[in-house]
Amino acid sequence: MEQQKKNFKLVSSKKTRIILPNMFTLIGVCIGLSSIKFAFDGRFEFSILAIIIAAIIDGLDGRIARLIKGVSKVGKELDSLTDVISFGVAPAFIMYFWKLNEFGRLGWLICLIYVVCVALRLARFNVNSEAEPSWRDNFFEGIPSPAGGVIVLLPLVLSFSELNFLNLNYDILVPSLFVIISILLISKIPTYSFKKIVVPRRMTIFLLFTVVLYFGVILIYTFNAIVISGIIYLLTVPISIIHYYRINKRFKTQFNETDDDEDIL
């Protein structure tokens, strides 16, 4: 009897490794849905914070799954469905309640186009993730949905920040930004994935310090830091394009040289 008690497990260790990252993912979708409720109640600052937290969780769940070897097909599909809700549907509703409702049916059409583009982008990502590993894994095709979801909220975030002195015309900025981000989501423009960054051991302490400092700034200057972070990310897009094509050109050159050697031999 004592032996049976010792061997009894509610969930196997292997199943636990799979459940843990999926729990993070489901928590993220609950937070994403809660952001819509905050926006419906007119508490837009809480909607912004909810989306940011959902984005942080989205960045952690996959890494946790790979770290504890808990990657699964269910988790992969669940993550994509969560992204559609948290970074597609939720930002569209938030911005519709805040500004796009003033455009009537056109505003709703813009929301629909954005959500469809998020869904298409995630469907393409799932298909491409089945490909063989290569240097291209360091780049996304188009901007990722979490980045898109945060960037379309930037006009709203800006309205709460101390940078609002710019006096921008939100009636033009909001729909224009939605259209631009929708195009970038389904485009094939290479953007940094930041998934396979190799940090030398001697630089680990500086990386940890930078991360802590960044989150400290987020806590103290929340909306200002989000706006600046979003602008910096947009500035990395042309840099990533140049970087991608330089690497691609180098690999093509090496491949052609190899083919020439084989022909000679």
Folded structure, characterized:
This protein is an all-alpha fold. The chain has one domain (10-258): CDP-alcohol phosphotransferase transmembrane (TM) domain (Four Helix Bundle (Hemerythrin (Met), subunit A)), CATH 1.20.120.1760. The chain contains ten helices and two strands, in the order αααααβαααβαα. It has helices spanning 2-7, 13-40, 44-67, 73-98, 105-128, 145-151, 154-160, 170-186, 204-220, 222-264; strands at residues 139-141, 190-192. The protein has a two-stranded antiparallel ribbon with strand order 1-2. Helix 4 (73-98) packs parallel to helix 6 and helix 7 (154-160) packs antiparallel against helix 10. The chain starts with a helix and ends with a helix. The mean pLDDT is 83.
Name the features:
265 residues, 10 helices, 2 strands, Four Helix Bundle (Hemerythrin (Met), subunit A), mainly alpha
Write the layout of secondary structure elements.
Blueprint: H1 2-7, H2 13-40, H3 44-67, H4 73-98, H5 105-128, E1 139-141, H6 145-151, H7 154-160, H8 170-186, E2 190-192, H9 204-220, H10 222-264
Antiparallel strand pairs: 1-2
Helix pairs in contact: 2-3, 2-4, 3-4, 3-6, 4-5, 4-6, 5-8, 7-10, 9-10
